[in-house]
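User: I've been trying to design a sequence by hand for this structure and keep getting stuck. Would you show me what you'd pick, starting by listing the structure so we're on the same page?

Assistant: Good idea, let's start from the same input. This is the structure you sent:
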């Protein structure tokens, strides 16, 4: 009885979580403009309309630019933070790492408003660069967590052996450590890219006149005739997110297998 109740709870939870996502492709291929059952017929016109929309392509280009830059910056900073936290002891190490992780627990709207006030007080014009700054801030904790796991799984004797063979700290890091943590770096890049691509609140506050894909979708929800195209766009975004997270998980597990560390859980 207890096992049956737990099974029923798990099924209800999964239905509640994934049923709305399953409805996206169903209505994206529906020929009717009203999002309701019964369905009228099969069509791909909404996907064609989506790719022909110049405003959507501009928003997509902005989002891709922001996501690529944010993921690179967040991963680079995450490498430094993870390396420092796993290899060195320094004053106020705990509080410093806590500050790095703070965006994980702070409401995004608070972070967004704070960044907006600071940037406007400094006279900075809101554009794609300000969104990159905000997305780097919220992606860095995720990158640091992933990379800390990668650095913790390293065998320090390999680094010490490189020093014994005459390598400098930089060359040992570049030739020995970096290749071993590369799966973690790739995983961090993909995870940060996905988070940035889907993020709405910071982009809404800091983008200015430059639309991103989430803000463009939000602006189109007031037009009923645009809803089917938004459903098609949502289907594409969900598919992209699943693919990127699957690749990130693959490289995470590959890194664990490569270093022989214990798997403590992942994204999937």
């Amino acid at each position: 009885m207890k096992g049956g109740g737990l099974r029923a709870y798990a099924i209800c939870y999964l239905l509640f979580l994934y049923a709305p996502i399953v409805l996206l492709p169903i209505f994206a291929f529906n020929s009717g403009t009203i999002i309701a059952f019964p369905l009228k017929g099969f069509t791909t016109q909404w996907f064609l309309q989506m790719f022909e929309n110049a405003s959507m392509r501009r928003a997509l280009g902005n989002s891709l630019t922001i996501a690529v830059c944010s993921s690179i910056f967040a991963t680079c900073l995450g490498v430094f933070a993870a390396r420092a936290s796993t290899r060195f002891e320094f004053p106020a190490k705990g509080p410093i790492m806590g500050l790095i992780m703070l965006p994980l627990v702070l409401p995004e709207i608070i972070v967004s408003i704070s960044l907006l006030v600071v940037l406007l007080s400094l006279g900075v014009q809101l554009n794609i660069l300000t969104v990159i700054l905000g997305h780097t801030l919220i992606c860095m904790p995720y990158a640091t967590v992933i990379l800390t796991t990668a650095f913790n799984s390293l065998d320090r004797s390999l680094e010490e052996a490189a020093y014994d063979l005459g390598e400098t700290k930089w060359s040992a890091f570049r030739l020995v450590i970096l290749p071993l943590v590369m799966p973690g770096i790739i995983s961090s890049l993909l995870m940060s890219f996905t988070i940035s691509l889907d993020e709405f609140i910071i982009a809404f506050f800091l983008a200015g006149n430059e639309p991103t894909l989430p803000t463009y979708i939000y602006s189109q929800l007031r037009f009923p005739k645009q809803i089917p195209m938004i459903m098609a766009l949502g289907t594409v975004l969900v598919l992209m997110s699943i693919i990127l997270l699957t690749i990130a998980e693959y490289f995470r597990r590959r890194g664990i297998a490569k270093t022989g560390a214990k798997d403590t859980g992942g994204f999937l």
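That's my pick for every position. To get oriented when you compare it with your attempt: The domain at 62-259 is CATH 1.10.3720.10 (MetI-like fold). The mean pLDDT is 82.
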